[in-house]
Design a protein that fits this description.
This protein has helices at residues 15-28, 54-64, 86-89, and strands spanning 12-13, 32-39, 45-52, 70-74, 77-81, 93-97, 109-113, 119-121, 127-130. It is of the alpha+beta class. It has one domain (12-130): Sandwich (Hypothetical Protein Aq_1857, Chain: A), CATH 2.60.300.12. Strands 4-5-2-3-9-8 form a six-stranded mixed beta sheet.
Length: 132
């Protein structure tokens, strides 16, 4: 009998993305990022990944009350998933692509790949549409 493996995190962060987030946190002297979705973009919603300082984290914790953000950790660094966006972000994979001129990649960037059963994305890679 095959074991069913269940991913217990609402999103997936690749090793390359974690390493880049950790590097940015060290340079900026912060410990966390916030991942959320906001309305807009060519497909309806935009992915938003931003640094979150200690004061901002305390403010979010107080505002959310009983709706605490889901927190993914890697060492001392954290990735918070904004509670009101979490249902839109389920199954999203965050990856990081470094520049690679030989392969036509001319910029470093985070990329977001939606769970194809829950959402579709457009060509820009920063916006998506949830499926009905």
């Amino acid at each position: 009998m095959l074991k069913q493996i269940v991913n217990k995190t609402p999103i997936i962060v690749t090793d390359k993305a974690w390493l880049k987030m950790i590097s940015i946190c060290k340079k900026q002297d912060v410990k966390r990022f916030m991942f959320s979705a906001s309305s807009g973009g060519c497909s309806g919603y935009n992915y938003k990944l931003e640094l979150l300082g200690d004061d901002e984290y305390k403010e979010i914790s107080n505002e959310q009350g009983k709706f605490k953000p889901t927190i993914l950790t890697n060492g001392e660094n954290e990735l918070l998933i904004e509670p009101s966006s979490e249902f839109l972000l389920l199954g999203t994979t965050i990856d990081y692509i470094p520049e690679d001129y030989a392969n036509g990649i001319f910029e470093n960037k985070f990329v977001f790949n939606p769970n194809k059963t829950l959402a579709s994305s457009c060509g820009c890679g920063i916006s998506f549409t949830p499926k009905e």
